[in-house]
Amino acid sequence: ILAQAILEVPQSSESAANSRTEMVSPADKRKIVKKRIKKFSRFQADRFKRMNPAWRKPRGIDGRVRRKFKGSTLMPNIGYGSDKRTRFRLKNGFYKFLVTRPADLEMLLMHNEKYAVEIAHNVGAKKRKEIIERADQLRLTVTNRFARLRTEEGA
């Protein structure tokens, strides 16, 4: 009886269009926890302008950072790693999937709740438009949707 009632309800073209433009939310809503947000900087990089702050492992025989003295600079190690289930996730909860042509979107046909599309930087405006149109049809989230898309002015 319920199935018949559902079949009898007519769907207007407006509601079908609205369902396509609805935002898709990620299937896994697990909270992303970063154990450390602050970057690991190179020991004594704050003292010398010539020294790059990018992390380098201290290898000196007397280095207090290498020997892990109390109060010295922290060294990165495996314990600061993210949870395996949330690693590489974007802030919106999706995994990033790089796309260079509209045909690449077909791989995500059944995975629109797990992956978000990111259009590669070397894709032109014409192909970007095609990718975005196809992504809307497949209800895929596009992270850089408005990048390098020209709108007509004074038309």
Automatic annotation (TrEMBL):
<dbReference type="InterPro" id="IPR018263">
    <property type="entry name" value="Ribosomal_eL32_CS"/>
</dbReference>
<dbReference type="Pfam" id="PF01655">
    <property type="entry name" value="Ribosomal_L32e"/>
</dbReference>
<protein>
    <recommendedName>
        <fullName>60S ribosomal protein L32</fullName>
    </recommendedName>
</protein>
<dbReference type="GO" id="GO:0003735">
    <property type="term" value="F:structural constituent of ribosome"/>
</dbReference>
<comment type="similarity">
    <text>Belongs to the eukaryotic ribosomal protein eL32 family.</text>
</comment>
<dbReference type="GO" id="GO:0022625">
    <property type="term" value="C:cytosolic large ribosomal subunit"/>
</dbReference>
<dbReference type="InterPro" id="IPR036351">
    <property type="entry name" value="Ribosomal_eL32_sf"/>
</dbReference>
<keyword id="KW-0689">Ribosomal protein</keyword>
<keyword id="KW-0687">Ribonucleoprotein</keyword>
<dbReference type="GO" id="GO:0006412">
    <property type="term" value="P:translation"/>
</dbReference>
<dbReference type="InterPro" id="IPR001515">
    <property type="entry name" value="Ribosomal_eL32"/>
</dbReference>
